[in-house]
Specification:
InterPro entries: HTH_HxlR, WH-like_DNA-bd_sf, WH_DNA-bd_sf
CATH class: Mainly Alpha
Helix content: 55-70%
CATH topology: Arc Repressor Mutant, subunit A
Distance between the termini: 49 Å
Protein name: Putative HTH-type transcriptional regulator YybR
CATH superfamily: Winged helix-like DNA-binding domain superfamily/Winged helix DNA-binding domain
Order of helices and strands: HHHEHHEEH
GO molecular function: DNA binding
Radius of gyration: 20 Å
Organism: Mycobacteroides salmoniphilum
Shape: extended
Oligomer: single chain
Number of helices: 6
Keywords: DNA-binding, Transcription, Transcription regulation
Number of strands: 3
Strand content: 5-15%
Length: 141
């Protein structure tokens, strides 16, 4: 875990939402939606191993359509998380790579993956209990 992630996880810090205005809150939500969607997470994880060509990315990310890969790469580039480098070669070659900002995001998402892997049995147990409680008739009338 990075020093920044440890700092953000410190329970002594005041609520991270304290003092966040409406416009800033909307922007934060928009960024979290972008970086937290399933395609962005998979693309960022794939690019962590180094630059990839479009076809390599398409082959490495299961079930993604070409349209969705193109759109997600464009949005990641827009946010400064991914670069696109075109090489003046025949045939033309284009590679995508993580920026320093994208690498920083990868370390944070990797910590979330480790957390999920370490707690999946507990979470599945809670889900089973919750789902079972929905099957029982309600005591309240």
């Amino acid at each position: 875990m990075t020093e920044r992630a440890r700092t953000l996880a410190d329970p002594a810090l005041p609520s991270i939402c304290a003092g966040v205005g409406l416009a800033e809150g909307e922007f934060i939500r928009e960024v979290l939606d972008r970086v937290g969607d399933k395609w962005s997470v998979l693309i960022i994880a794939t690019l962590h191993d180094g630059p990839r060509r479009y076809t390599e990315l398409h082959d490495a990310v299961p079930s993604i359509s070409q349209r969705m890969l193109t759109r997600t790469l464009m949005l990641l580039r827009r946010d400064g998380l991914v670069t696109r480098t075109a090489f003046a070669e025949v045939p033309p070659r284009v590679e995508y790579a993580l920026t320093p900002l994208g690498l920083d995001l990868h370390s944070i998402s990797a910590a979330l993956v480790l957390w999920a892997r370490g707690h999946h049995e507990v979470i599945r147990g809670h889900r089973a209990l919750f789902d079972a409680s929905l099957d029982k008739p309600s005591m309240a009338k």
